[in-house]
Amino acid sequence: MSKRPAFSVQAPSAVVMVRPHHFTVNTETAADNHFQVAGTGGEDLAPLAHAEITKAAETLAAHGVTVHLFEDESLETPDSVFPNNWFSTHAGGHVALYPMKAPSRRRERRADVIEMLKTDYRVQEVIDYSGLEPDGLFLEGTGAMVLDHIDRVAYAVRSDRTDPIALERFCTHFNFEPMAFDARDDKGAAIYHTNVLMCIATDFVLIGLDMIADTARKAEIVARLERSGRDVLALSNRQIENFAGNAIELQGKDGRILALSTTALSALTPEQREIIEQSAICVALDIPTIERAGGSVRCTLAGVHLTPRG
């Protein structure tokens, strides 16, 4: 059973999703996203991606998660299906907007999403960091950072998409302690986003420890996570490649769930699943087309950590 009460600040009960109408794999971001699959063989991926998000939203709603589903009919925002990179929400009514590295990704920011949050939830302030983009300082939201909302730590892999100055500013504003580290895959390529190798839930953590070369820093991270009372489940590089780290815990109508892809779920060992399911039900979403763009379920869901109105 869970070590903590049914309600957890780590697990939001609502999410924002974006359903793409012209989905493609973004060539502009391929240089540092080694999870992307190059080339489509002339295949039209748009209807497949549209159907995958539709089904994923329906599945989450069936488990009692509130899904705010927005349409994207633009031809200029190939990665819009990953809204967690351009904004995040926080208890107390705070919203952050983030500076994005790729120009095409900067076009994903939408006033209608922010207006919905202000209308449906209690929003006190919106802090906009996008003005850092002309200075080449990027921090791509909860892709760049994996946030421990309970212990108030922002874990962040250093990369071109996670600038230490921007990270420090965010942590100062939002009362998180920054914990930055380096991570590489077994080919030596730097990991582009923290949330592909790490998922923090209420009672457990999924993390690709083999990708953290600095043994001292790795030990510090494990110690900090264990001190928070969580089970630390080490993922192999192969499991990370199959997006097992790109999951998110949500609050459903019958308790907490772990939303992850069918690819990710099949990569977990029975022992890992057993520990996870002591506190959260695994809910697998089938999004193989979207995963070709280099992100999985966590990337498609922007959690809403705000208080609903009324």
Task: List the main descriptive attributes of the protein structure presented here.
single chain, 310 residues, alpha/beta, L-arginine/glycine Amidinotransferase, Chain A, three-stranded mixed beta sheet, 11 helices, 15 strands, 27% helix, 23% strand, hydrolase activity, Citrulline utilization hydrolase CtlX
How would you portray this structure in words?
It is a single chain. By secondary structure, this protein is an alpha/beta fold. It has one domain: L-arginine/glycine Amidinotransferase, Chain A (5-stranded Propeller). Helices cover 27% and strands 23% of the residues. It contains 11 helices and 15 strands. The protein has helices at residues 46-62, 103-106, 111-120, 141-144, 164-174, 215-227, 237-241, 262-267, 270-276, 288-291, 297-300; strands spanning 14-20, 66-72, 87-90, 94-97, 125-128, 145-148, 153-157, 177-181, 198-200, 204-207, 231-234, 248-252, 255-261, 281-285, 302-303. It has a 3-stranded mixed β-sheet. A 3-stranded mixed β-sheet has the order 3-4-5, with no helix packed on it. A 3-stranded mixed β-sheet has the order 6-7-8, with helices on both faces. The model is unreliable at 28-36 (pLDDT under 50).
